[in-house]
């Protein structure tokens, strides 16, 4: 059985990361929203002010998926947390434990960094992902709705400051 490996991404992985992002966007039917470029990712992930981190999941030495995450903060816990922005496994590698291995890796990172929680969002229709999350003991946060300001709304809000 091929070995699963999880490793922190390096700057040399930027083209791979962008390809995973594009594949994820296609899977989520959101390709039209991708404006990320290699230069933007390089600066955001490996530049002077890093906004996020990435791990790469390998299966038998072949890149199979990625997880992009960053720190948030819980005022109630008084501690940082990890927010998993994206978790993606290529279709041909699904069902082999790679997603579960990346989640376990991130849980270990959260514990090592004294984080109070690991959280993420999932599209309501993504039943395979929801089943995976339930199988590891994750629970949905009923009663919470995500809001977002972007584009023109973000510009207008910022202009009020």
Topology, please?
Layout: E1 4-8, H1 14-27, H2 38-46, E2 53-59, E3 62-74, E4 79-89, H3 98-112, E5 118-120, H4 127-135, H5 151-159
Parallel strand pairs: 4-5
Antiparallel strand pairs: 1-2, 2-3, 3-4
Keywords:
5 strands; 161 residues; 5-stranded mixed β-sheet; alpha+beta
Short note summarizing the structure:
The chain has helices at residues 14-27, 38-46, 98-112, 127-135, 151-159; strands at residues 4-8, 53-59, 62-74, 79-89, 118-120. It is α+β, with helices and mostly antiparallel strands and 161 residues long. Strand 4 (79-89), helix 3 (98-112) and strand 5 form a beta-alpha-beta unit.
Q: Return the structural class.
A: alpha+beta
What share of the residues lie within helices?
A: 25-40%
Strand line-up across the major sheet: 1-2-3-4-5
Hey, roughly how much beta strand do the residues contain? 15-25%
CATH third-level topology: Aminopeptidase
Tell me the name of the CATH class. Answer: Alpha Beta
Count of alpha/pi helices: 5
The end-to-end distance, rounded to whole angstroms, is 57 Å
Question: In the residues, how many domains can be counted?
Answer: 1
- Tertiary shape: globular
> What is the makeup of the main sheet?
5 strands, mixed
Rounded to an integer in angstroms, the radius of gyration calculated over CA atoms is 16 Å
- The low-confidence parts are none
- What would CATH call the architecture? 3-Layer(aba) Sandwich
């Amino acid at each position: 059985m091929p070995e699963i490996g999880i490793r922190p991404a390096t700057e040399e992985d930027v083209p791979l990361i962008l390809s995973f992002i594009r594949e994820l966007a296609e899977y989520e039917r959101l390709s039209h929203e991708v404006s990320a470029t290699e230069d933007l990712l390089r600066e955001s992930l490996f530049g002077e002010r890093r906004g996020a981190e990435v791990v790469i999941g390998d299966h038998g030495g072949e890149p199979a998926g990625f997880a992009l995450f960053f720190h948030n903060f819980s005022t109630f816990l008084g501690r940082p947390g990890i927010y998993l922005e994206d978790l993606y496994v290529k279709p041909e590698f699904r069902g082999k434990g790679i997603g579960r291995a990346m989640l376990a890796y991130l849980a270990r990172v959260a514990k090592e960094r004294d984080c109070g929680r690991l959280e993420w969002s999932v599209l309501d229709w993504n039943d395979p992902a929801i089943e995976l999350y339930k199988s590891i003991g994750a629970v949905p946060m009923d009663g919470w709705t995500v809001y977002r300001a972007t584009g023109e709304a973000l510009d207008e809000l910022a202009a009020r400051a």
